[in-house]
Structures are given as structure tokens and as C-alpha cells.
Design a protein that fits this description.
Length: about 160
């Protein structure tokens, strides 16, 4: 018989994720092919932008300008998601020219490369609502602002 979890359990897990595990995190947007899993190095992907609170400077391990989360919602599509904190702007300045393909959300302490202990979540970055990371543009130019308008970290159920 398969393991099943209650809705209350899933909401509690995502509440813990947003309030503890991913508090003051950072989102990095890349070109290229998304790795097979979040334990794998970023590979040959090019870092195109670092997204922080209002585009402010971010230092790994320091809470200043880290991203925080708001509401936990039932999407009604078999997933529960956490969304960015209301009233905040998630943005960054493009570091290179390219096409954004995917993003990696890092906990407040950024660990790059291969790791099976780092707290990271990967997802597809598109300009389409409902994507894992919804970006204002997929084509970047160095020095031009990139805004993340939606971020859906989903936990499947049933």
C-alpha cells in the first residue's frame, strides 16, 4: 500500500520550507540545459542573473536582500505551492547576454557544484504564468533588469 499524506501535512511541510529552509534565499537564472537533478552541478550553463529582493546586493549566509515567501496555496491541480511574499519585488540585473532557460533557488547559504546536502530547487523559467519561475523576459542583455513575477514551488499530492 502506498504512503499517503494529509493536506494538513503538506501545508505544514511548505510552511516550514518557506519560514525556515528557504528564508532569505536567492534565485539564479541560467541559460543552457537544466541538470538532471538539483544535486548536480550547474554544468556548462551560463549564469545570466541573480534575483534578490528589489535587486539588492546579496551575500551568501547573510539575510540582507534575500527572498522570502508568503502564502501557501492549493493549486487545485494536484499540487500545493508557496508563492513570493506579497508586496515584494524579485529582480536582478542581467550579468550576461543570453536566453534564460532554467533557474536554481538556493537557500541563504549558496552551495554550487555537485552536492547531495545543499538545499536547492531547480525549475523551468518561462514568461508563461504558472511556470516554476515566471520571468519578465527570457532574452537578457547585460545590465538590463530581469523581474521574476511568479515563483511556484510545488509539492505534489495524491
Amino acid at each position: 500500500m502506498p504512503t499517503r499524506t494529509s493536506t494538513g501535512f503538506r501545508f505544514a511541510v511548505l510552511d516550514n520550507v518557506k519560514d525556515v529552509i528557504l528564508q532569505n534565499c536567492i534565485l539564479r537564472l541560467y541559460s543552457g540545459t537544466q541538470p538532471a537533478d538539483s544535486d548536480t552541478t550547474e554544468g556548462s550553463s551560463v549564469l545570466l542573473a541573480e534575483v534578490t529582493l528589489d535587486g539588492g546586493a546579496f551575500v551568501s549566509g547573510v539575510s540582507t536582500n534575500g527572498l522570502n515567501w508568503g502564502t501557501v496555496v492549493d493549486n487545485g491541480d494536484g499540487t500545493i505551492a508557496i508563492l513570493p511574499k506579497d508586496g515584494t519585488v524579485w529582480k536582478g540585473v542581467a550579468l550576461a547576454d543570453g536566453t534564460i532557460a532554467w533557474g536554481r533557488l538556493f537557500a541563504n547559504t549558496v552551495v554550487t557544484g555537485d552536492s547531495d546536502t545543499a538545499v536547492r530547487i531547480d525549475g523551468q523559467a518561462l514568461t508563461t504564468s504558472g511556470a516554476d519561475f515566471v520571468v519578465s523576459t527570457q532574452t537578457t542583455k547585460t545590465g538590463v533588469e530581469v523581474v521574476v513575477t511568479e515563483c511556484n514551488i510545488k509539492l505534489p499530492y495524491n
